[in-house]
Specification:
mainly beta
Length: 142
């Protein structure tokens, strides 16, 4: 039987593979790298670093940072590295979802913890100039 992850279970290093399908541009790509979540009081500093590649183009180094905070209600509140709120998702179900509105664009993510400690995040992003899907798989390293 699958078990729900706890906030502190995310700390550590994760091998990350992300598939990208840009419906508007008709292209696909992938990101491969490492996501590291460093624990500090009530928070995890999230850093992902790796290589982003699209067919016919030279690969690029890519990175992003977030701060995950444990919310009082047991959810995970995610912030951009500059402190702006991004989204919140609950940890009381195996497949929680969340939405971020960045007008005029809409970002929707569904997490899948059914194979914990391997987990997935599937994003759907739509807007006047955006129409893409991201499918990420995280596997504990080491």
């Amino acid at each position: 039987m699958a078990r729900l992850p706890r906030f502190e279970d995310f700390a550590g290093r994760w091998r990350l593979e992300r598939k990208i399908t840009d419906r508007r541009a008709g292209t696909s790509g992938r990101f491969e790298g490492l996501a590291t979540m460093r624990a500090r009081e009530g928070a995890l500093d999230y850093l992902e670093e790796g290589e982003l590649s699209f067919a016919g183009k030279a690969p690029l180094a890519a990175s992003r940072r977030y701060v995950w905070r444990r919310a009082e209600n047991g959810a995970v509140d995610v912030y951009f590295e500059d402190g702006r709120f991004f989204l919140s998702f609950p940890l009381d179900r195996l497949m929680p979802d969340a939405t971020h509105v960045c007008s005029p664009d809409l970002y929707h993510v569904t997490f899948d913890f059914t194979d914990w400690p391997e987990w997935r995040a599937k994003w759907r992003v739509v807007g006047p100039r955006k129409d893409y899907c991201l499918s990420a798989t995280y596997r504990r390293e080491g």
